[in-house]
Amino acid sequence: MMIEVVAALIWDNDKFLICRRPKNKARALLWEFAGGKVEFGETKEQALIRECKEELDIIISAEDIFMDVVHEYSDITVHLTLFNSTILEGIPKKLEHDDIKWITASEIDNYDFCPADIEILKKVKEFKK
Predict the structure, then answer these.
(1) N or C: which end of the chain has fewer CB within 10 A?
(2) CA dihedral defined by 83, 86, 88, 92, rounded to 10 degrees?
(3) What's the rounded Cα separation, in Å, for the pair 5 and 48?
(4) For the chain, which residues make up each domain, given as ranges?
(5) Which residue, among 1, 6, 17, 41, has the nearest Cα to 94 in the 3D structure?
(6) Per-residue b/e over 19-49, b at no fewer than 16 CB within 10 Å?
(7) Which of 119, 54, 127, 129 is nearest to 84 (CA)?
């Protein structure tokens, strides 16, 4: 079964936002982009705006697609769409995540990311050379 997942690539100058998954969830304590599952009846953009409000208490714009990937985990297959996004209102808060950080592309290798994000992170590194 394929699950539609959306995520936000939010830049602040040369840094972008990453979030660490809580201990009690699948892929615990791995880093990821902000976002989540697309609910029935939502567009991907609507889902991303809702997820960022729920998880981080920020209002974002979902702009163009940076990249999308399909990744098979042992328990689920995800189709992940990453949108270039901008924070319109608010400062990110840890409402659901274990931690949140702003990092540069050159710091990516210092963090353990969810496997679905690996291809995307390669592109982020190339994009920000």
Answers:
(1) N
(2) 90
(3) 9
(4) 2-127
(5) 17
(6) bbbeeeeeeeebbbbbbbebeeebebbebbb
(7) 127
**Eight-class DSSP state of 38:** P
Q: How far apart are CA 72 and CA 59, in angstroms?
A: 30
Longest dimension (CA), the chain: 38
pLDDT one-digit tens code per residue, 76-125: 999 999 999 999 999 999 999 999 999 999 999 999 999 999 999 999 99
CATH architecture of the domain covering 2-127: Alpha-Beta Complex (3.90)
d(Cα 40, Cα 72) in Å, to the nearest integer? 21
pTM of the model as a whole: 0.94
What the block records as the tokens of 102 is 């702003």
Unique residue bearing structure tokens 């609507």: 46
